[in-house]
Amino acid sequence: MEIVADTTGARLDIFLNEKIDDMSRAQIQTLIKSGNVTVNGKACKAKYSVQHNDTIAVDIPEPENEEVAAEDIPVEILFEDEHLIVLNKATGMVVHPAAGNNSGTLVNALLHHCHGKLAAEGGEGRPGIVHRLDKDTSGCIVVAKSDTAHRSLVAQFKERSTKKQYLAVVNGTPLKENDTVFTHIGRHPVNRLKMAVVNPGSGKTAITDYQCLGHDDLTDSSLIHCDLHTGRTHQIRVHMLHIGCAILDDPIYAKVKHQKTSTGRLMLHARRLSITHPVTEERLTFRAPIPEEFHPWTDRFYTDPVEA
Predict the structure, then answer these.
(1) First to last CA, the chain
(2) CA 2, CA 287: separation in Å to the nearest integer?
(3) What share of the chain is helix, strand, coil (3-state, %, to 5)?
(4) Which regions of the chain carry the CATH code 3.10.290.10?
(5) Which pairing describes strands 55-58 and 42-43: parallel, antiparallel, or unpaired?
(6) What CATH number was assigned to the domain covering residues 166-268?
(7) Strand partners, 84
(8) What pTM, to 2 d.p., does this model score?
(9) What is the side-by-side strand order in the sheet with 42-43?
(10) pLDDT reported for residue 117
(11) 231: confidence class by pLDDT, cuts 50, 70, 90
(12) For the chain, what is the largest distance between any 2 Cα atoms, rounded to a whole number of angstroms?
């Protein structure tokens, strides 16, 4: 992959850690040391100071067929039975192993917690996974423990019968208090690590309903409630940027230095998830507790909806 730097002065390893969603800083440092990262065609050290318009090439080796190890990592469980488990994923946690990132993920943690009993149909390195959250997004995620549950949940997400509701804190305030954002989302034409709104006929349909719950004048920031009708990569992050209100502390889509306030994390949280139980067919709604960083906004502007 190739990245054109949009900033000056950041260390190379820190810069790439912000741009590459599924890799830790230590793993990026390993890639740099092994010569898999070049800047303007030349190898650099991790401490290199990135300059505006530097062309950074990152060669991520194909993953080795290593068995994913169970790891004793704490996780916050919202619901669990023999068929599925619902969790409040922590910000900063990658969902499943990827190239150069074979440990410390939610899958590693669940293999330990569930004693290896996750649905095999998730695929190699992704047992039980039916949907994902970005590394820095927190909140509700469901994982299948049985193949029956996996097939049902995959079908529910495909048919859009699930309901996903998010809270976001954005820079500025939308022109419309509530609206539906209907676009096509595809890979950014220049920076392949980004997604972008693209012309109809390319990319995939992406639909987000949003409501501005309140605006804080001091920090020029707003609390936004989002309902997702599709599940495209970075969908809310791209749609908030599209309406002129990038999410606070978004290292990929926001000009963080120009935002008036910072919390130290991506301000996006999967607050509620509704699914139909794969076996009992009961409709279930789960709520992930609101993170502390959101409280300055949610304490003033948020009331939990009664209906899912």
Answers:
(1) 40
(2) 38
(3) 20, 30, 50
(4) 2-58
(5) unpaired
(6) 3.30.2350.10
(7) 144
(8) 0.79
(9) 2-4, 55-58, 37-39, 42-43
(10) 92
(11) very high
(12) 58
CB count within 10 Å of CB 281 equals: 8
What kind of fold does domain 2-58 have according to CATH?
A: 3.10.290
The partner residues of 77 in beta bridges, in order of sequence, read 87
What is the identity of the amino acid at 192? R
Contacts of 177 (CB under 8 A, 6+ apart): 211, 212
User: How far apart are the C-alpha atoms of 57 and 226, rounded to whole Å?
Assistant: 35
Cβ(298)–Cβ(223) below 8 Å: yes
Q: Please indicate whether residue 134 is annotated as part of the active site.
A: yes
Four-residue CA torsion sign, 102, 269, 263, 220 = positive
Phi-psi region of 172 (alpha: psi -120 to 50; beta: other; left: phi over 0): left
Q: In the predicted model, is pLDDT for residue 100 greater than 90?
A: no
Q: Which residues, 6+ apart, have CB-to-CB distance to 126 below 8 Å?
A: 96, 97, 107
Tokens for 242? 């599209």
The residue type of 221 is S
Query: pLDDT tens across 269-288, in order?
Result: 999 999 999 999 999 999 99
CATH architecture label of 63-159: 2-Layer Sandwich (3.30)
Q: At residue 164, what is the residue type?
A: K
Q: What is the mean pLDDT of the chain?
A: 91
Q: What is the DSSP letter of 110?
A: H
Catalytic residue among 13, 21, 134, 136: 134
Residue 162 pLDDT class (50, 70, 90 cuts): very high
Q: What is the Cα–Cα distance from 148 to 238, expressed in whole angstroms?
A: 33
Residue 308: pLDDT above 50? no
Whole-number Å distance between alpha carbons of 85 and 3: 37
Q: Which among 126, 159, 139, 145 is positioned nearest to 273, based on CA atoms? A: 139
Cα–Cα distance between 203 and 190 in angstroms, integer? 15
Tokens of residue 283, six digits: 């409709």
